[in-house]
Amino acid sequence: MLFSVIIPTCDRPDLLSLCLNNLAPGGQSVNPDSYEVIVTDDGINDTTKSLIEKEYSWVRWVNGPKKGPAANRNNGARYAESKWLVFTDDDCLPARDWLKAYKEATVQHPNSKAFEGAILPDNFEALKEDMAECPVNNKGGLFWSANIMVEKKLFEAVGGFDEEFIMAANEDQEIYKKIMEQGIVPFYDNAIVIHPVKIISLSKKIALLPKSETSQILLRYKQHYSVYSNYFDGVRIHLFSGFDNLRKKKFKRLLYNTAGLFYRLLFCPLIIYKVYRRKV
What we know:
Elements: E1 3-9, H1 13-21, E2 35-41, H2 47-55, E3 60-63, H3 69-79, E4 84-88, E5 93-94, H4 98-108, E6 114-121, E7 132-133, E8 147-151, H5 152-157, H6 171-180, E9 187-195, E10 198-199, H7 202-207, H8 209-222, H9 227-247, H10 251-266, H11 268-276
Parallel strand pairs: 1-2, 1-4, 2-3, 6-9
Antiparallel strand pairs: 4-8, 5-9, 6-8, 7-10
Helix pairs in contact: 8-9, 8-11, 9-10
């Protein structure tokens, strides 16, 4: 086999089913024998396991470590038997030529050990709505884990995803820096997955502030930002995003930026202190 497709999941069997339908034998324009699909399950019940046993017998289900998305992706990689690890998410829909495009990429760039593909929204108009979220990658240089491919040997050499990142954010940026030190990462816009646009509530977004700000601080610490630049970079992001959302009349998003700014000013110094006082 050439590819091991790794899909982390956590109690979203309906979305996972749609993803797996696009990866079923005949669903991809490559030989089905050229890839395996590994679902690594962080769910708290047996719903996903039962679904796969009944309807997707060609999928390899493995029990997740229950330590967050980064650890769950690493868990799937440990079971992989192919040269290339291809990561996507359980709510993504891989295009029919997804793996074919990655196969062509390895031929055209034989010295590259990692690639990224395009992530497109399922509804471009919905992106204009206030509090709409979707990780769009149509130009490259982002290396978002919803659509990346890494040679297994390189993945293991850099230590996989950093499991200190306990939410689905920034762990791909951390590993991207390590991988870039080994060589270029080509972007293939025809290796496509479709990602749903979601409208997140303002209250939920604000409730996630402690985790998201901690994740951002941890990333900048690992990228060797100084204490002061780490702190003020977060302030700058909320300020500029706030002005942009005011211009676009996205008032809920503006309220979130305001809450984020106050959180960064009042509480993040303690988080930064705790992070930077550790031994590097």
